[in-house]
Specification:
UDP-n-acetylglucosamine1-carboxyvinyl-transferase, Chain, 2 domains, 4-stranded mixed β-sheet, about 30% helix, single chain, alpha/beta, about 425 residues
């Protein structure tokens, strides 16, 4: 059990250079399997999922040079031998996005039946299976494995998703590049990390139309160019540090080269009386003396934060705003329209003295402004929930303990060092 000790109560101040977005890094790493050309990736975070993919590529026969100090990763898949076999890493959900590249390269991929990820409720793989079948793959069970096979080059197809799933959209786009002709996906996810994957693929030579919209067309590509690509900052991490500033009454600036992605995020901060400004590649939140939930003009309607697929507030950011909700004076409803298991952790907040009420599996009310006290809490295996608990602990005078805090390391390799530099006293106990 990994514990994180947090001594809070300090006003946080400073500047932060955020890491790259895990949700862009992982699909891009998976997509590199399409190419035999040399690929250089920069600003690569040192996180566990990247380490797993690095090990998988090495075992497969790829030449991979990872300089963790300079955060560069050089990849050459041309060294994968004929007849190589691939069983995908079980411990991360991103594994499923390696299947298109492995099918195109080896004709087969194996996935353990219960692929893992954050504990956010049921996360089915059937939409992915539907994508692979649409491009001509055969899918079978063999003992505990799901086996995907495909011979020859796929043919283009058109698919209308029931739900704007990020990883299903990414799998469709990667698969489409291995097909003859032009494929189209309707009701595509359009999150910033999906757009970043498309930008990377375009740098490799792909032709993609409709990036950032719900309807995307992709031309098949028979040859990929060498690419030197630098990952952009993670908008989740930027928003998280701004929220840390708000919850601790601080003044934090975060490097942000894509402020155009923040209009709705900024408006959500305003619901708690906090203002974000963007200038010269930096985003800043200089917190008010007290967070106060802003009242609606329609007085009988509770202030709401609704999380759903982009361009809504991302469900991954909802926990950090729940942390603001338990701190801000007033009542807020949080609505997670994505995961049925995304709010059950709220009971841990009561150990800090927070008043919350779960209305149903998707809606949570916070009654903020009560005095909070240090506590020992246990995080589920959800990255941003562990961070939300850390945020609440950082706002309280005294030492709190967050048990099972290791999910933070999955996405943010320097997160604890960064908040330490801002004025929070934190330490790991592994």
């Amino acid at each position: 059990m990994t514990a994180l000790y947090v001594r809070g109560g300090q006003r946080l101040e400073g500047k932060i250079e955020p890491s790259a977005n895990k949700n862009a890094v992982l699909p891009i790493l998976c997509a590199t399997l399409l190419s035999d050309a040399p690929i250089m990736l920069r600003n690569v975070p040192v996180i566990t999922d990247v380490q797993r993919i690095h090990a998988f590529f090495t075992d497969l026969g790829s030449t991979v040079v990872w300089d963790m100090g300079s955060q560069t990763l050089a990849i050459d898949h041309s060294t994968i031998p004929n007849g190589a076999k691939a069983k995908l890493p079980q411990a991360m959900r991103a594994s499923i996005m390696m299947i298109p590249g492995l099918l195109a390269r080896l004709g087969e991929a194996r996935l353990e039946h219960e692929v893992k990820g954050c504990t956010l409720g049921a996360r089915e793989i059937d939409p992915h299976v539907a994508v692979f079948k649409a491009f001509g793959a055969e899918v079978d069970y063999e003992k505990k494995d799901i086996v995907f096979r495909h011979k020859g080059r796929a043919e283009a197809t058109r698919m209308w998703l029931e739900y704007a799933s990020v990883t299903t959209t990414e799998n469709f786009i990667i698969s489409a590049l291995t097909a003859n002709g032009t494929s189209q996906i309707v009701n595509a996810a359009c999150e910033p990390h999906v757009q970043e994957m498309c930008t990377f693929l375009e740098a490799m030579g792909a032709t993609i139309r409709g990036k950032g919209t719900s309807m995307v067309s992709i031309d098949g590509c028979k040859e990929f160019a060498p690419v030197d690509y630098t990952f952009v900052e993670d908008f989740h991490e930027i928003a998280t540090f701004l929220a840390l500033s708000a919850v601790t009454g601080g003044d934090i600036s975060v490097r942000n080269t894509r402020p155009e992605d923040f209009m709705l995020i900024d408006r959500t901060f305003e619901k708690f009386g906090a203002e974000v400004t963007h200038k010269d590649g930096w985003s800043r939140l200089n917190a008010p003396e007290e967070l106060i939930v802003q009242q609606n003009f329609t007085s009988h309607i509770t202030t709401k934060v609704e999380a759903a697929p982009w361009p809504y507030i991302p469900a991954d950011l909802l926990p950090i705003f729940i942390a603001l909700g338990v701190k801000a004076r007033g009542q807020t409803m949080f609505w997670n329209k994505v995961y049925e298991g995304g709010l059950t952790w709220h009971t841990e907040l009561s150990l800090f003295g927070a008043h919350t009420l779960l209305c149903d599996p998707h809606r949570l009310l916070t009654f903020g402004g009560d005095k909070l006290v240090p506590a020992t809490v246990t995080s589920p295996y959800i990255i941003r929930v562990a961070i939300a608990m850390l945020m609440v602990a950082a706002s309280i005078e005294g030492e709190s303990t967050i048990l099972d805090a290791d999910p933070i390391r999955r996405a943010h390799p320097n997160f604890v060092q960064n908040i330490d530099s801002l004025g929070v006293n934190v330490r790991w106990d592994d």
